[in-house]
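Quick note —
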Amino acid sequence: MAVTHPLWTAFALVLVIEGLLPFAAPGIWREAFRRMTTLSDGQLRFIGLASIAAGVLSLVLVHA
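Predicted structure written out below.
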């Protein structure tokens, strides 16, 4: 069995998690995506920054 790099594992998990909502509830996902297209660049950047911060905090807590 090949040894995988943790980065590839993380990337694969991101794809799985990102695919859960469109698979399980496509109507909700479509509406959420439609609403996101109406947000300003600043609002989208804030959401991105909050996601990054939550991810970094999660990594710190898991590896502490």
